[in-house]
Amino acid sequence: MTTTVSAYAAPAAKAPLERTTIPRRPVGEHDVLIEIKYAGICHSDIHQARDGWGEGIFPMVPGHEIAGIVTETGPGVTKFAVGDRVGVGCMVDSCRECDNCKAGLEQYCSGGNVGTYNALDKTGEPTYGGYSTHIVVDEAFTLRIPDGLSLDVAAPLLCAGITLYSPLAHWKAGPGKKVAIVGLGGLGHMGVKIAHALGAEVTVLSQSLRKKDDGLRLGADHYYATSDEATFEQLAGTFDLVVSTVSAPLPLDTYLGLLRTDGALVNVGAPEEPVSLNLFSVIAGRKTLAGSGIGGIRETQEMLDFCAEHGLGAEIEVIGADRINEAYERVLSSDVRYRFVIDAATI
Questions:
Q1: Which of 80, 82, 98, 173 can pair with 168 through a Cys bridge, CB separation 3.0 to 4.6 Å?
Q2: What class of enzyme is it (predicted)?
């Protein structure tokens, strides 16, 4: 039977989120029912709830950083059992048949993966995310949270963690590599932790030095203010990899100037506005301007295991659900260190 659960939803674009109820599908052959314990608040939630990335599906229940406990399994489930600690990230399905899906790159599914929220599933029903008490997910898109990670600090890893781990791993951040993380926010702080754990020399590039002590504590070797023009002169030609986590348009030509020959500037922050580029900025030095989107299921599990091995959880502020709207405004004003996490027991 379809069940009804409590949730927080945006009833319309730009409207405040409010408590409501939503349907959850019956537990199918390969599904698990998860009692959500914690759900992270990602900047993506705000973009989508406010139609920043295009027209959304409303009412919208955001949330794709989900950590909880399995409370029921379908008869065909083999990966999980009742009581297991699990997570759900940014997608809950894909075509599973294209070359990307077969390669474990479900995030780049040729037909488009099914988002955890603000999407339509294969039956045409809207998906609802983690700002709720329970969710039903196919075991193939469910992750195991290692015992070494508490559920509250693990929740943001399902988006922020994998969003940074994937490009750092793909572009081989590690010993002997100089890596810059642009922005020390929900994404950036995990980038610093992961790049440091991978063995790279890590630099934070932030608008000001306000968070310098935090950046160094989290694993950065260096910290510079981008508001100081001298920074770009001093660091010209320095980095093998620059990962931008900011969701505002950057002067790409200026940042490309920070790269060594064959370096890469990878964007994981997604501004709502278009950006411009002088192609000579990539031609000179055979540089790469790239993007990266989350990670596949296999890589996300690899990231969780890596974070558990190295003791890397998110830096969080746990809130009650009645503070979600306040948290949105604080995220927009950069007033969080570094991820809000909703205690689902308050929903």
A1: 173
A2: oxidoreductase
Q: What is the pLDDT of residues 303-319, one digit of tens each?
A: 999 999 999 999 999 99
Pairwise CA distance, residues 77 & 111, whole Å: 25
5-17 pLDDT, tens per residue?
999 999 999 999 9
**CATH 3.40.50.720 matches 161-291:** yes
